Amino acid sequence: MGQVTIESREFALSNLDKVLWPDDGYTKGELIHYYVQVADYLLPHLRGRPLVLTRFPDGIHRKSFYQKNAPDYLPPWIRTFSWYSEDSQRDIRFIVAEEAATLAWLANQACIEMHPWLSSIESIDNPDFAVIDLDPSPGSRYQDVVDIALVVKELLDNLGLRSYPKTSGSAGLHIYIPVEAVYTYEQVRKFAHVLASMVTEVLPHIATIERAVKKRGHKVYVDYLQNVLGKTLSSVYSVRPRPGAPVSTPLLWDEVSQITPAQFTIKTILSRLRDYGDLFAPVLQDRQNLEPACHKLGLPIF
């Protein structure tokens, strides 16, 4: 165990040689190093948002668990946000990551994945994005995911809405549509539902909105149901617990058909960031009004 100081925050790190990715030999120390290096790009996407964390204390092939409630031993300098959960019938004290030292402390707890809410604590009931999660089924081809993503983009273009893709870090793609923080989750979910339904009408042989996994067959699940208060997707630049330590990575739309998610890992992403910067930065600023698009669709949801 050793003490470190990151931006004036002093705390202990432990078991840095513990292997978290057995197939690759990547250690907890390398995870911490990655999150500190990527902090300037990642933190803008986490600030002011409750975090759900996934911890893998014995590596990616062993038991893991989600953590919402901050532990009692959380350093006092790490920000938290208390929110009453109707499901749990209790207050949950969420961690809010505001600085590089927080990322390092979390990684030292073997927090591999970071899942921020779609809304900020300043407007917790109003999401900042509508999201479409393209989730392959067993037997799906990645090309199917790409084909569906490009149809989603075409539909959004025709509606006058800008969209931003990123790899999930797993086998799929996430598409973000930044919106003004004035809509309820229900309104945004209804819009995403209509969009997902239109996609399945265009590509019925490869796309589905069927919720029952057994009924999806080999089709890609066009998931609009992540647009719910408290539900989360892996953050851009979050590491994923898969071989190679892949990272959820923003893409240019022109790249979507040319890459595979496995290309971007904790060992390769930083050179891309130096070359391209944060391609997901516009998601935080490009607030869009959904009403013209809904008018075009004839949706009476607002």
Question: Could you explain the architecture of this structure?
Answer:
The protein has 302 residues and is α+β, with helices and mostly antiparallel strands. It has two domains: 1-116, DNA primase, PRIM domain; 123-302, DNA primase, PRIM domain (Alpha-Beta Complex). Helix content is 24%, strand content 22%. The protein is built from seven helices and 14 strands. It has helices at residues 28-37, 39-42, 100-108, 142-158, 185-202, 269-276, 291-297, and strands at residues 2-6, 9-13, 19-21, 26-27, 51-55, 65-67, 79-85, 90-96, 111-116, 129-135, 164-167, 173-178, 207-208, 220-223. The strands form five sheets. Strands 11-12-10-14-13 form a five-stranded mixed β-sheet, covered by helices on one side. Strands 6-5-9 form a three-stranded antiparallel β-sheet. Helix 1 (28-37) runs antiparallel to helix 3 and helix 4 packs across helix 5 (185-202). The chain is globular, with a radius of gyration of 19 Å.
Q: What features would you highlight for this structure?
A:
single chain; 302 residues; alpha+beta; DNA primase, PRIM domain; 7 helices; 14 strands; 22% strand
In short:
This protein has 302 residues and is of the alpha+beta class. The chain has helices spanning 28-37, 39-42, 100-108, 142-158, 185-202, 269-276, 291-297, and strands at residues 2-6, 9-13, 19-21, 26-27, 51-55, 65-67, 79-85, 90-96, 111-116, 129-135, 164-167, 173-178, 207-208, 220-223.
